[in-house]
Amino acid sequence: MRDNLTMLRRNLLHARRYPSLTLNLLLTPVILLLLFVYIFGNVMSAGITGGPADRGEYIAYIVPGILLMTIGGTAIGTAVSVASDMTEGIIARFRTMAISRASVLIGHVLGSVIQTLLALAVVLGVGLAIGFRPNATPLEWLAAAGLLALVSVALIWIAVGMGLVSPNPEGASNLALPLMVLPLLSSAFVPVDAMPGWFQPVAEYQPFSPAIETLRGLLMGSEIGTKNALLTVGWCLGLTVLGYLWSKARFNDEPGS
């Protein structure tokens, strides 16, 4: 526990001293939110509902997707941070020290989860400022927070593995790019039913769409669907286990192996 807390403190200090990466990744979802609401909002709302243009309805639709995209963006920062540690040699030094090896990875994960939750609060605040009006009970808010935390842990463990296998920070950024692209191919911006028929199964069963639909239902007090909830939990648990085992195996590899 002492080693975990030490590594957590180290990663939080790094984030405070070098905030540019976090800010750059945070700006992307905020800009997309403002762009789609104020430029495309009326057109998109009319296309989705088939009725008159209503930007307010589209804000309610798009904010959950942007929140999930924020998690993907901050996970890219995690991959870059881990790759930086690898290339700078600090990971090799940690391997020789009398500390828990797992604490190095856990420190990255815990630090990134904290940064992600803070980023989510900022993006949600922007959404509320431009007209997002949730209709969730206190229990649904708690469930939504738990869902966001669960998705964050899953994607960050995958990002840690990506950072460990990347030759440099630039490679890690490129390798983790799908974490930002996949939300664009989900139900974040338009319903799955509006997509081409051949692509709908891909969009429906990829990790982000079930999580977005579940979060949307929790925040707006609408129907979630058992399938979406089960897919979300299944994807999160599966990615967490996969990311942890992958990261542990790569971290324990000796240099040059």
How would you sum up this structure, described in words?
It is a single chain. The chain is mainly α and about 260 residues long. It is about 75% helix and about 0% strand. It has twelve helices and no strands. The chain has helices at about 1-15, 20-40, 40-50, 55-90, 90-95, 100-130, 140-165, 170-175, 180, 200-205, 210-220, 225-250. Helix 1 packs across helix 6 (about 100-130), helix 4 runs antiparallel to helix 8 (about 170-175) and helix 11 crosses helix 12 (about 225-250). It is elongated and about 65 Å long. The mean pLDDT is about 85.
Q: TL;DR of this structure?
A:
This protein is mostly helical and 257 residues long. The protein is 77% helix and 0% strand.
Radius of gyration of CA atoms, rounded to a whole number: 19 Å
Number of strands: 0
The overall pLDDT, averaged over residues, is: 85
Q: Whole-Å distance between the termini?
A: 29 Å
Task: Report the total helices.
Answer: 12
Topology at a glance:
Layout: H1 2-17, H2 20-38, H3 41-49, H4 55-88, H5 90-96, H6 101-129, H7 138-165, H8 169-175, H9 178-181, H10 200-205, H11 208-220, H12 226-252
Summary tags:
single chain, 257 residues, mainly alpha, 12 helices, 0% strand, elongated, transport, Nod_factor_ABC_transporter, ABC2_TM
